[in-house]
User: Fold GmrSD restriction endonucleases N-terminal domain-containing protein from Paractinoplanes tereljensis.
Amino acid sequence: MLSDDADSRLAPSVELLSDILEDIARGLIRVPKFQRPFVWRPEQMLDLFDSIERGYPIGSILLWETTENVLSLSSVGEVEVPPPPLDRPASYVLDGHQRLSTLFGVLRRLGRTPRFDDQREWKWRIYRDLDLKEHPSRDRYRHFRAEGSSPARVPETLMPVRAVAGTIDFLRFSRNLELQIGDGKRLERLINEADQVASRLRSYKLAVIKLRGGSLNEAVEVYTRLNRRGVRMEADQVVSALTHRSDQPTMAEHIETIVEAVANTEFGELPRTAVFRSILAVAGEVDVMSPRWELVADRMQKSMATAVPKATEAIHAAVEFLQWAGLPLASLLPYAHQLVILTGFFHRCNERGAPPTGNERYELRRWFWVTSWAGSYAGATSTTLRRALQEMRDFADGRITRLALDVAAVQPVPDQFNLNSARTLAYVAWEAGEFRHRLDSLGQKFDVLQRLAAGAAQAYRPVYPRDPRPANRLVLPTPPGLRLETALRSLRDDLWGRASEILESHGIPEIAWQRMLDGDEELFLDYRARFLGEKLRAFAGDIGVELTRDLIGVADDDTEHE
Assistant:
C-alpha cells in the first residue's frame, strides 16, 4: 500500500542533460535489471535528437533513489558504467530507460567507425548533417552505413553527434572539417551550424521526477499512478518489478531469453510486448492487454515457474509455423497480436499431446495471410484479442474446423509503401518469398533477406521520386551514387548478358522495362504493378483465398513492434 507521505517524497526538478549523463557515467543513475532491454528502432533514436535540437519536450524521467541493493545493468546504451556507490544512494530509472540509453549510448561512445555489416554498433553512430542549406530536403539526423570494408569514409559534412559531448572531440571535428573543406565562406557556415547544434544539445534540460526512499513495490505503485496520468510505462516492466526476487530471473530476463533464442535462428527479434502477452495467455490470464497489473503480478508470482517454459515451447512452435507459412523475418510480422494468438493455439496443441494436423496448418496459414491483408487487428482491443484466443482454443480442441475470416475485406496491395502498415509488411514478406533469388545491378547474387534484416526502410529504394506505390520500390544494390532508374536503364547495354535475369529476379516484366527506356514513368509502374498483382493473386489462390478485383488497400499506421 502506498504510504501517506509518498507524494511528499516526490521531488520534481529540471536538470541539464549533460549533468544527467555525467551521473550515469559515475554509476549514480542506473538501469534496474527488471527493465526491458533496449528496443528502440534507429528512426526513434534519430527523432529523439531532432526533438532535442528543436527544443521540444521529450517527456520526464522518473527515478527512484534508494540505498537498497537493486540488481542493475552494467552498461547503458552498450557503454560500460561503474558499479553503484557504496557510500551514498543510487537512483534507478523507472521511466525513461530508452531515452537515456539512446542519449548516453550515442553521446558517450568512443571508438572507430563501425563496419558496414555490424548489426549492433552502427545504430549508435548518429550524425548531424551540417549542409542542409544546400540540401534542405534531407533529414537533420541520420545514420551512415556505407557499402564496403571498414572503416567507412563518412562525408565531411556529417558531424558525429558524440563530438558535441566534449570540447576536445568538437575541436578535432572542426579541424578535420577545415582540412577537408578548406578556408572560405562554406567552412564558416558549416562551423557556425556545428556550434549552434552543440550549444542546443549541451544546454538542453530534462524534467526529472525523483522518488526518495520507500520500497520497490511502493516505487512501482507511484510509477503506475503516474502512468495513469500519461507517463509511459510498459506492462512487462510493471510485472517484472512487482514479481522481482533477487534469487530468480525477472520477467524481463525471461522475455529476453526467449527473444534471443529466436533471434539466433536468424528469424530476428520478436516484439517483446507480444512475447510478454503470450506468456500471460499461456498462464491463463483472460485479459492480456490491459488488466490490473498488480493483480496479474500476484498471480504470475505463483505461476511463472510453469508458465514460462510452456510459453517458450509454444512461441518457438509459432515461429516455426510462421516461417513455414511464408514470413521470413520477425520484423515483417504484420501484427504482434498474431504471435500471441498463434502461441495460444500451439500451447493448446501441446496440452492435448498432439501436433497440429495438416489441415489445421493450412487453415492457420490462410488465417495468417487473410488477417494480415484485411487489417483484422488494426486497433485491436482486449475484447478482440480475448475472442481470438478463445477461437484458437476451440480450433485446437476440435470444436470448430474453420476459422472465421473476413475474406471480403482482403486487399493485399498497399496504396503506399508504409512500413508502419501491416498491409505493407505483409506485402514485403510475400515479395521476399516470391522473388527469393535476386541479382544486383552487376548480375551478382545477393541475399535479400540479409538486406531486409538490416533494415527494410534502407533496403527498399524508390525508382522514381515521389510516387508512393510499392511497384516503385526495389531492393536492388547498385554502385555508390547510382540511382535505380539509371541502373535499370543501363541494362540495355547488357554487358554481362544477364539483363533478363536481373529484371526477372526483381519482378520487373520486360514490357515495363521497355516503357522505362521510352521515358514513360507511369507505364513502367502500371505494368509492374499489374504484374505483381497477378503474382499475388496466384499466391492467394494457392492458399485458398480468392481475391476480389480491387487489390489495393489503405496502408494505415496500424502495426506495433515493441
Observations:
- Residues 413-553 form one domain.
- Residues 228-233 have pLDDT under 50 and may be disordered.
- The two ends are 31 Å apart (CA to CA).
